[in-house]
């Protein structure tokens, strides 16, 4: 008789703060919950955790890793090196943002919320991590065997097959994509991953299909051609860790593409990293003559670079974080380009509720949008001063949403699950209707696969005879 338990601290029947516990001793991910203005974290796992595995470096999966590892000094820690380096960028930025918010709270007379982890804690993570550099099987803790394989979601992203001491085989695949993109091939069907007892899998778009990625990429190029033909510029706000996935095909097509924000760091990371598995694709910046990184050498020079970029007469594509227009250089680019009807703002991904990106998609041409700015002015010998201002712009440029996701739609996921052929499926990382949609689509193809939804804070227990 075999037995296995599973608990989602968060990221089960919702998206955000992914934090999962297998059999009470293996933790996968511990992310941030970013739906609020103030970042939250999942409930902390109690008891001894022998092994911590990170699937990939998106904040909703890695944002709470320093907090988790502080509470669990006993845990071994494993991830790909690409995921570690990307996590490092994001966590250092999180500390900087938290410190800035604390300063602003203090200047506004509120009790500041100190950062939940420090820069020193982030920098010390390297001493805890064992890097996974291939897809071989290994035994990180007594009686267990594990193998990492590409999840196809982004460079460095992994899914894991875990074999527990009693022989129970569990595949954890979240986040995952079966679609090929510029820097990563879609998740495969590894022969030694087939027929697991349980498959824990994301349900993000389980109840709907996404547009064909190749057709969306072709439509994006056509939109850029039209913008260039009328002498305009295009700005693409994007998530830092994956913006290069959209920038490279445009540069390859000959469009002048400038990458800004933290996307520059990730671009250097991917260009200088050896792929850890055959699904991740290598690339060199020197192979793309029309791809440029905004880099003036310092903040002041970057400011001049950006000013000159939006004022130059020649058409240009600017791809910059942040993806939802809540911070980062993308906000400034949109402010500069939004009122000119020759230009276009292209929103390639998900825009969360109450973000400026979501608001922009809901407004019509001719309407106005206001961006709010806060910063702390510091002058040597003087008290810090809070500066606040608003920038209001009329929407004259085209605002065009696209569906260029790092996830796959429900039908593709259902077919992939059926080819893996698990006995049972536990769905995570989705709204309730997405869980149900993935179940329905999969069981139309293979009725005998049992489905269960992981609800936040509840424990699932299975016994296999």
From TrEMBL:
Pfam family of the protein (one): RMMBL
Keyword Hydrolase: yes
Any GO molecular function: RNA endonuclease activity
SUPFAM superfamilies named among the record's database cross-references: Metallo-hydrolase/oxidoreductase
Entry keyword set: Hydrolase
Source organism superkingdom: Bacteria
Domain Metallo-beta-lactamase: 16-232
Domain Beta-Casp: 243-360
Gene3D superfamilies: 3.40.50.10890, Ribonuclease Z/Hydroxyacylglutathione hydrolase-like
Protein's UniProt keywords contain DNA-binding: no
InterPro entries per record: Beta_Casp, MBL, Metallo-B-lactamas, RibonucZ/Hydroxyglut_hydro, RMMBL
Protein name according to UniProt: MBL fold metallo-hydrolase
């Amino acid at each position: 008789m075999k037995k296995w338990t599973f608990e989602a601290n968060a990221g089960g029947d919702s998206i955000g703060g992914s934090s999962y516990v297998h059999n009470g001793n293996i933790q996968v991910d511990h992310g941030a919950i970013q739906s609020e203005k103030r970042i939250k974290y999942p409930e902390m796992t109690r008891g001894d955790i022998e092994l911590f595995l990170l699937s990939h470096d998106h904040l909703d999966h890695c944002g709470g890793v320093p907090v988790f590892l502080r509470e669990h000094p006993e845990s071994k820690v494993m991830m790909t090196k690409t995921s570690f380096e990307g996590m490092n960028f994001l966590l250092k930025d999180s500390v900087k943002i938290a410190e800035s918010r604390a300063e602003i709270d203090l200047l506004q007379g509120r009790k500041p919320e100190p950062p939940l982890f420090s820069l020193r804690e982030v920098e010390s993570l390297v001493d805890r991590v064992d890097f996974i550099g291939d897809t071989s099987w290994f035994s990180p803790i007594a009686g267990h065997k594990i193998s990492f394989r590409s999840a196809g979601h982004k460079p460095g992203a992994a899914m894991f097959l875990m074999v527990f001491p009693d022989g129970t085989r569990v595949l954890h695949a979240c986040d995952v994509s079966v679609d090929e993109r510029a820097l990563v091939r879609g998740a495969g069907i590894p022969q030694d991953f087939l027929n697991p007892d349980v498959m824990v899998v994301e349900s993000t778009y389980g109840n709907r299909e996404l547009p064909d990625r190749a057709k969306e990429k072709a439509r994006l190029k056509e939109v850029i051609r039209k913008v260039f033909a009328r002498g305009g510029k295009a700005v693409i706000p994007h998530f830092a860790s994956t913006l290069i996935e959209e920038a490279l095909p445009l540069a390859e097509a000959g469009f002048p593409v400038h990458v800004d924000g933290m996307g520059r760091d990730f671009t250097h990371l991917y260009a200088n990293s050896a792929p850890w598995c055959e699904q991740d694709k290598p690339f060199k910046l020197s192979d793309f003559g029309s791809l440029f990184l905004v880099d003036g050498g310092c903040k002041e020079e970057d400011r001049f670079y950006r000013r000159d970029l939006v004022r130059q007469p020649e058409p240009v594509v600017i791809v910059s974080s942040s993806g939802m227009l809540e911070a980062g250089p993308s906000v400034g680019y949109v402010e500069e380009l939004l009122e000119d009807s020759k230009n276009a703002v292209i929103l390639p991904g998900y825009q969360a509720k109450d973000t400026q990106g979501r608001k922009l998609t809901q407004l019509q041409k001719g309407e106005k949008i206001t961006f709010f700015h806060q910063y702390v002015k510091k002058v040597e010998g003087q008290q810090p001063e809070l500066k606040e201002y608003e920038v209001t712009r009329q929407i004259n440029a085209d605002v065009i949403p696209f569906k260029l996701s790092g996830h796959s739609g429900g039908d593709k996921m259902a077919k992939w699950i059926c080819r893996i052929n698990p006995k049972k499926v536990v769905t995570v990382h989705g709204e309730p209707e997405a869980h149900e949609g993935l179940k329905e689509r999969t069981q139309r193809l293979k009725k005998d696969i049992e489905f269960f939804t992981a609800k936040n804070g509840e424990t699932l227990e299975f016994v296999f005879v």
